[in-house]
Amino acid sequence: MSDYKFSFERLEVWQLSRLLVIDIYNLMEQFPEKEKYGLVSQMKRAVISVSSNIAEGSTRNSAKDQARFSTIAYGSLIELLNQLILSFDLKLILENQLLALRNKIQVLSVKLNNLRAAQKNSINSKPKN
């Protein structure tokens, strides 16, 4: 890989979301084939959406746009948590798998909320003309 890093690559929230993608993709390997186009597809899209929206938001010039993408990323993260809970309910994952991923999601959600708050504060702190 290149030594050059884009701004999103330096964000801890993006780095954590990248690791979460790996965790989810590895977990999806154990799901039954019949879920390939159901939960597996939905969960992969949700987890990819988290990191993708963090990355895309980092390219936006206005703090308002950045905060909007952080909000979308947060929504995808919560969607993923819901799908993990449903996977547990359907006995597709074990409780310890759910708890481990839930802890990672909680850490990421706090950091993502902090990023979003900083972006929103940036909006509010600009002088009005």
Brief sketch in words of this structure:
With 129 residues, the protein is mainly alpha-helical. The protein is 73% helix and 0% strand.
Description:
The protein is mainly α and 129 residues long. The protein has one domain: 23S rRNA-intervening sequence (de novo design (two linked rop proteins)). The protein has helices at 12-28, 39-57, 63-89, 95-125. The longest helix has 31 residues, at 95-125. The N and C termini lie far apart (44 Å). The relative contact order is 0.15.
The portion of residues assigned to helices is over 70%
Characterize the largest beta sheet: strand count, sense, and whether it forms a barrel.
none
- Name the helix and strand elements from N-terminus to C-terminus, one letter apiece: HHHH
CATH topological fold name? de novo design (two linked rop proteins)
User: What's the level 1 CATH class?
Assistant: Mainly Alpha
Per DSSP, the total helix count is 4
CATH superfamily: 23S rRNA-intervening sequence
Question: In terms of topology, how is this protein built?
Answer:
Elements lengths: L11 H17 L10 H19 L5 H27 L5 H31 L4
Question: Which key terms come to mind for this protein?
Answer:
single chain; 129 residues; mainly alpha; de novo design (two linked rop proteins); 73% helix; elongated
